[in-house]
């Protein structure tokens, strides 16, 4: 089959690789029909995750059709149209039983790598480096899905492919950002980043009762989309205003109740702090550019919550822990628990409360893989998300 493979920093190529087969009786083979780029892929492609190897197939946000199932798969059948959770979970360990699927104990065969990096290992993730299991990703014609009954969800009739694909990752990630912040009706939420995950976090915050949602980004078209489609009540362009001052002004000097970081380790920004991070990251003295995280901590009101779903991979520098401690902030973070949220989110989509299909700005074949990621990374041609049609 054809697959989009990593061959080095910003070097993706389509290669012919062996078709996947059933290895475990709980597996299913899926014919991929749509597979989206994701901001977290960029961390691999740009060389900030060391356990990516030449030949690895990228991609973790996808839908497809079931073409084969293992003998222990009883709830899926050939021909089912399914959305697949990007994190791989067994469904049986303590963390899965507690609905914390991204912390699964049993799906990462390379847990020893993650343990050296993070002190412990979470769940495996499709196409997301060998530290996260080394599983082949979804930018391919076919993919093997382990623990298929736990990770595959049949897409209800009436939901278009373009809407369903983001229930794999972007929508559950954005929803979890709002959900774990325990947003209460009437609260003010600030969301940094208006890419796919940020757009979904904005809509989710509104769904959960936020009275005001302030969207922050450096691209005017994304801010306008957040306001016109996502329901953001206020928009701030960090290239034009001082974010700390603007948030104080919008909240009567108090600060937002909840600050969501939907950007993570490759944040863009302004000022000396940003260029300090860029310089350290360029010479590999730091993995992360935590511009947004610093801003969120400083902006959040006393006793508020900072919710982090943007990915960080290493040792972030100059984090204002003094502010966090003395303002009694609550930190919530993590890779998202897709299996917990996907059924609920499919209902939102089916009922017309959210339609994530507007995230798609480019539809391309695998052969345009590197160009699509370049467009996405550089936000050229108004690229919000590119999807591959293998």
UniProtKB/TrEMBL annotation:
Its cofactor is Zn(2+). It holds the Pfam family ADH_N. The keyword Zinc applies. Keywords: Metal-binding, Oxidoreductase, Zinc. One of its GO terms (molecular function) is zinc ion binding. It comes from the Bacteria. Residues 8-388 form the Enoyl reductase (ER) domain. Belongs to the zinc-containing alcohol dehydrogenase family. This is Glutathione-dependent formaldehyde dehydrogenase. It comes from Siphonobacter curvatus.
């Amino acid at each position: 089959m054809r697959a989009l493979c990593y061959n080095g920093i910003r070097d993706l190529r389509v290669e012919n690789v062996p078709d996947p087969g059933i290895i475990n009786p709980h597996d299913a083979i899926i014919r991929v029909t749509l597979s989206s780029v994701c901001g977290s892929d960029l961390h691999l492609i740009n060389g900030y995750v060391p356990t990516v190897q030449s030949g690895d197939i990228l991609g973790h946000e996808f839908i497809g059709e079931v073409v084969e199932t293992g003998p222990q798969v009883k709830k899926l059948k050939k021909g089912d149209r399914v959305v697949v959770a990007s994190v791989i979970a067994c469904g049986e360990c303590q963390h899965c039983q507690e609905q914390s699927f991204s912390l699964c104990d049993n799906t990462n065969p390379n847990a020893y790598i993650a343990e050296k990096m993070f002190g412990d290992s979470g769940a495996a993730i499709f196409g997301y480096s060998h530290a996260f299991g080394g599983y082949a990703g979804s930018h391919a014609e076919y993919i093997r899905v382990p623990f298929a009954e736990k990770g595959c969800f049949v897409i209800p009739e009436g939901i278009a492919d373009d809407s369903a694909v983001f229930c794999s990752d972007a929508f559950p990630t954005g929803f979890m950002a709002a959900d774990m912040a325990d947003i209460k009706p009437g609260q003010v939420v600030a969301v940094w980043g208006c890419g796919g995950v940020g757009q979904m976090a904005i809509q989710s915050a509104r769904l959960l009762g936020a009275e005001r949602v302030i969207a922050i980004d450096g691209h005017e078209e994304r801010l306008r989309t957040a306001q016109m489609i996502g329901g953001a009540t206020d928009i701030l362009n960090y290239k034009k205003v001082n974010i700390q001052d603007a948030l104080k002004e919008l909240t009567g000097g108090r600060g937002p109740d909840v600050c969501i970081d939907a950007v993570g380790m490759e944040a863009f920004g302004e000022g000396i702090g940003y260029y300090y991070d860029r310089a350290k990251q360029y010479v590999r003295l730091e993995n992360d550019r935590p511009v947004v995280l610093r801003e969120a901590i400083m902006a959040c009101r006393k006793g508020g919550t900072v919710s982090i779903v943007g990915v960080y991979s290493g040792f972030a520098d100059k984090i204002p822990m003094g502010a966090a401690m003395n303002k009694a902030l609550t930190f919530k973070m993590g890779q998202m628990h897709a299996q917990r949220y996907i059924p609920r989110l499919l209902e939102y989509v089916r009922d017309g409360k959210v339609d994530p299909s507007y995230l798609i700005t480019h539809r391309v074949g695998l052969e345009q893989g590197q160009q699509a990621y370049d467009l996405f990374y550089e936000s050229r041609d108004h690229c919000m998300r590119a999807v591959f049609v293998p």
